[in-house]
């Protein structure tokens, strides 16, 4: 079974979601199904069908999370160092065309959230950054044409 790289924080978020699904969401949907059944004819009961759909989603997500957690390989970025970009690195970039600065942490696929600055290791930008050092320029293919970034800093926290 292939291990999935993940930060400790990413694993904690997945474990919290799994706990919530099992302790709150699953019991709530079971109550909703029981309540909808009490209303009578199930063939025309929209509440019952919606609750069953929700139950199916919750059970599927629980299975998915259990699989992800069991195959997670936690990598602690604070044990890494250097100015070369690796998994877990916090990277500050500047767009060489617009001079706009941005910063990202390179994380596992299942913990990525671009709004929070967590960039998936499998994204084109992260793939371009891996192995590069401070001062290097990287070219990233985008739908609007290639973008070029310069690496300003690389830190491990």
Automatic annotation (TrEMBL):
Domain Transcription elongation factor GreA/GreB C-terminal: start-end pairs: 82-156
Every Transcription elongation factor GreA/GreB N-terminal domain range: 4-74
Keywords in alphabetical order: DNA-binding, Elongation factor, Protein biosynthesis, Transcription, Transcription regulation
GO biological process terms on file: DNA-templated transcription elongation; regulation of DNA-templated transcription elongation
Entry annotated with the keyword Transcription: yes
Role played: Necessary for efficient RNA polymerase transcription elongation past template-encoded arresting sites. The arresting sites in DNA have the property of trapping a certain fraction of elongating RNA polymerases that pass through, resulting in locked ternary complexes. Cleavage of the nascent transcript by cleavage factors such as GreA or GreB allows the resumption of elongation from the new 3'terminus. GreA releases sequences of 2 to 3 nucleotides.
Membership in a protein family: Belongs to the GreA/GreB family.
Protein name: Transcription elongation factor GreA
Natural source organism: Kozakia baliensis
């Amino acid at each position: 079974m292939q291990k999935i790289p993940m930060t400790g924080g990413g694993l904690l978020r997945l474990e919290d979601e799994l706990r919530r699904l099992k302790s709150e969401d699953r019991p709530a949907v079971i109550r909703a199904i029981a309540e909808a059944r009490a209303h009578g004819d199930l063939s025309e009961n929209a509440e019952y069908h919606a609750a069953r759909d929700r139950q199916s989603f919750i059970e599927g997500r629980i299975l998915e999370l259990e699989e992800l957690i069991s195959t997670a390989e936690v990598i602690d970025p604070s044990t890494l160092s250097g100015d070369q970009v690796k998994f877990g690195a916090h990277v500050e970039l500047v767009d060489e065309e617009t001079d706009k600065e941005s910063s990202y942490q390179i994380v596992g696929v299942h913990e990525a959230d671009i709004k929070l600055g967590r960039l998936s290791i499998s994204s084109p930008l992260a793939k371009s950054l891996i192995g590069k050092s401070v001062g290097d320029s990287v070219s990233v293919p985008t739908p609007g044409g290639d973008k070029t970034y310069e690496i300003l800093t690389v830190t491990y926290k």
